[in-house]
Amino acid sequence: MAAKNDSNNVKKLPVATERMVLDEAAIEAARHSLDQGAVTPHYGPWREDVIKLLNDSLATELVCVLRYKRHHFTAQGLASPKIAEEFLVHATEEAAHADRIAQRIVQLGGEPDFSPDSLTKRSHAAYDDSADLKAMIKSNLVAERVAIESYSQLIEMIGDKDSTTRRLLEDILADEQEHADELKDWLAT
Ligand SMILES: [Fe+2]
Ligand SMILES: [Fe+2]
Hints:
- By secondary structure, the protein is mainly α.
- It is 62% helix and 0% strand.
- It contains six helices and no strands.
- It has helices at residues 24-30, 47-74, 81-107, 119-122, 133-158, 163-188.
- α2 (47-74) runs antiparallel to α3 and α5 (133-158) packs antiparallel against α6 (163-188).
- The longest helix is centred in the N-terminal third of the chain and has 28 residues, at 47-74.
- Bound molecules: fe (ii) ion (2 copies).
- One fe (ii) ion is lined by residues 61, 64, 94, 97, 147, 172, 176.
- One fe (ii) ion is lined by residues 64, 90, 94, 144, 147, 176, 179.
């Protein structure tokens, strides 16, 4: 005989211990402080830290643009003009990363630091003026790996604190991983 309504087999749903309600006071506060633009009370106390970290990433991207440009122009006469062209493609992509980071810094109410005097001090990756094509590829691979490591750490640190910044950094990280993969292949050939 089939069991009728065997309650032992019914999986019980968890009971809520607290209600899901919005913080009305914070919503009211969002109606004010209009000078803060996109930053509302929910953002949390780490805005300054995120801006500082983004500015260090901005410096890294700008140094990467300069390094790839240098390599693009000076590798012209060497054995692999195709790689010289790829250096330019990377330079353009790093410049786009820099623009997106600068835009996010402004959205967060910060100031993007383009000061050339402190660029290499703030950048995670180094500039390089090697004359040899293989040395160029190697220094770019090192820089990409440094970028990958620092973006990965940043993404983990930011977590759910700022989902817009996290998604931006995840996008950029995917590009840097592609760059590193290409450089690894070029180094092997
Ligand atoms: Fe980049
Ligand atoms: Fe890159």
